[in-house]
Design a protein that fits this description.
Its EC number is 2.1.2.2. This protein has 300 residues and is α/β, with parallel strands linked by helices. The protein is built from seven helices and 14 strands. Helices cover 28% and strands 23% of the residues.
Length: 300
């Protein structure tokens, strides 16, 4: 075995003199060393023995594959998702978190190329927070609770989210205004979902069942969810995606809410998938568009 190690290390050093191989380290049939910034080094070794007393011959070949700046090999292009780093998601909720649960399920079944790594809530005992804790997802309470328990300031929240290497923040029924510090720290990276076709029936005070009642009372024939980027105001950020839901003649607010929520669940997973797959593009006039996964030349 020592003879094998000496021959292998000598062969490897002659090809790649800058890599240090520990004296007792030995690669089995196929090993892969990856430098996340520059190259991927693959070594393929085969071992043959003519008889039990002879020295084994070791034949090794190494290949150097170019990587992009994110550490993706140029031979991994057959699988589009393999080129992309999984994104870290933070989800904000105030209630049961049904949209949060849909997004989380999407990360598990492969629909969303990312992971929910932290949940933020202003209600420590809400259904969404309990769902997160049961699955080992850290929960941050923000803003400060009424009982005076210490909680994060806006600056602390930014620091905490950065410690989780958050790529995108998804508001899923979070009823508090996002602080300016967070908006500035995550430009074009915070999304919210609203249960009407913005800009109609949006703004401060329009949330939950209040939205659906207002839609019905107005006589509007269509409603539906809107996903938009978050700015310093309520529901005024750039619209990214919408789904149309007809308002039926005899609809109640509860019936309309149920149909809109059904579309919310599907729409948010689709948008989260587009975010994590880096399919969001910005038109020259500042309007965000989603590039089609099946037809990259089509946008929505």
């Amino acid at each position: 075995m020592e003879t094998q190690n000496v021959i292998f290390r000598s062969s490897l050093r002659s090809a790649l003199p800058s890599i240090q191989i520990p004296r007792n380290h030995f690669f089995s049939s196929e090993s892969k060393i990856r430098n996340p910034q520059y190259v991927s080094l693959k070594f393929h070794c085969s071992f043959t023995s003519h008889n039990l007393l002879s020295k084994r011959n070791i034949q090794c070949r190494n290949s150097v594959e170019k990587l992009d700046w994110k550490g993706v090999s140029d031979v991994e292009k057959d699988n589009p998702k393999s080129k992309l780093r999984r994104k870290n998601l933070a989800v904000f909720v105030s209630g049961g978190g049904s949209n949060f649960r849909s997004i989380y399920q999407g990360t598990l079944d492969g629909s969303v190329h990312g992971d929910v790594v932290v949940l933020v809530t202003n209600k420590h005992d809400c259904g969404g927070a309990e769902f997160a804790r049961e699955r080992g997802i850290p929960v941050i309470v923000f803003p400060k609770r009424k009982d005076g328990e210490k909680a994060f300031s806006a600056e602390d929240l930014v620091i905490a989210l950065r410690s989780y290497n958050i790529d995108f923040i998804l508001l899923a029924g979070y009823l508090k205004l996002i602080p300016v510090e967070l908006v500035q720290a995550y430009p074009k990276s915070i999304l919210n979902i609203h249960p009407s076709l913005l800009p109609a029936f949006g703004g401060k005070g329009f949330y939950g069942m209040k939205v659906h009642k207002a839609v019905i009372e107005s006589g509007a024939r269509y409603s539906g969810p809107t996903i938009h980027y978050v700015d310093e105001e309520y529901d005024t950020g750039r619209i990214l995606a919408q789904r149309v839901v007809p308002v039926l003649a005899n609809d109640t607010a509860e019936e309309l809410a149920a149909r809109v929520l059904h579309e919310e669940h599907k729409l948010y997973v689709d948008v989260a998938a587009a975010l994590c797959e880096e399919r969001i593009v910005w038109r020259e006039d500042g309007v965000p568009l989603i590039r089609s996964k099946e037809k990259p030349t089509d946008y929505s």
